[in-house]
Amino acid sequence: MNGNGHKMQVKNLSMYYEDFKALEDISLDFPSRRITALIGPSGCGKSTLVRCLNRMNDLIEGSRIEGEITLDGQNINGTGYDVISLRRRVGMVFQRPNPFPKSIYENVAYGPRLAGTKDKEKLDFIVEDSLKKAALWDEVKKILRESGQKLSGGQQQRLCIARVMAVKPEVILFDEPCSAIDPISTQKIEDLMAELKKNYTMVIVTHNMQQAARVSDYTAFMLVQEQGEPGRIIEFDDTNTIFTNPSDKRTENYITGRFG
Amino acid sequence: MEVRKTFHEQLDDLYAGLLHMGSDLMETIEKTRLCFLDLDKEAADQIICGDDVFDDYRNNLEEGGLELIARQAPVAVDLRLVIVIMRIASHFERMADLCEDIATAVKNIPADFLTAWIKDTIDEMARRANRLVERSIECLKERNVEMVRELESMDDAVDKLNRRFWKEFDRGREEDIEVAIRVVMISRFFERIADHAVDIGEHVRFVVEGTIAPLAINDECQ
Question: What is the nearest CA distance from B91 to chain A, expressed in angstroms?
Answer without folding.
Answer: 23
